[in-house]
Design a protein that fits this description.
There is one protein chain. With 166 residues, the chain is mainly beta. Helices cover 11% and strands 40% of the residues. Strands 1-2-3-4-5-6-7-8 form an 8-stranded antiparallel sheet, with helices on one face. The longest helix has 18 residues, at 3-20. The protein is globular, with a radius of gyration of 16 Å. It starts with a helix and ends in an 11-residue tail after the last strand.
């Protein structure tokens, strides 16, 4: 096997592993002081403004759509053959995990599953917290897909940080 093919196979396996074990592929997350100043428009006392969060957010093997009416979808992929998409509801609120204005996202109904899906990351009624942060001049949405571990970064399509992956 050529060196180029070997390097490509190693990169592909590393990407698949990082999605199957997202704690390893975290984006700095909640423990990173670079996220201490979120650009949310809400004041600390009122966290009901959804506007800073609304829209499409994505990263390598993942995506979340937050509609202005509090609905949306979340997709998590692992490799080329495993993915899952769920409908969700969400609200802007104070988040205990991030100790600032953020979002609470709750999965509702599975709309698509390929292969092994998300290996249990997504399930009916599962709740995730998120907050906005800055990373290298980019606004990111940090979501706690794995409670107790650092958050995963999601980026806007036109403001993509390296932490959001390929």
């Amino acid at each position: 096997m050529s060196r180029l093919r070997t390097a490509g196979a190693v990169a592909f396996c590393a990407a698949a592993f990082s999605l199957a074990a997202p704690a390893i592929a975290h984006a700095g997350g909640t423990h990173d002081p670079a996220y201490s100043q979120p650009p949310a428009a809400s004041s600390a006392g009122d966290c009901s403004d959804r506007a800073p969060f609304v829209g499409q957010w994505s990263g390598h093997g993942r995506g979340v759509l937050l509609n202005a009416d509090g609905t949306g979808t979340i997709t998590v992929r692992s490799g080329a053959a495993n993915s899952e998409t769920w409908t969700q509801t969400w609200s802007a609120q104070q988040t205990p995990l991030f100790a600032k204005c953020g979002v609470a996202i709750q999965t509702d109904r599975q709309t698509q599953k390929l292969g092994n899906g998300s290996y249990g990351v997504l399930a009916a009624g599962k709740t995730f917290q998120g907050a906005l942060g800055q990373r290298g001049g980019h606004t990111v949405l940090l979501v706690s897909l794995h409670p107790g571990q650092d958050s995963i970064a999601f980026c806007r399509p036109n403001d993509y940080a390296p932490e959001c992956g390929a």
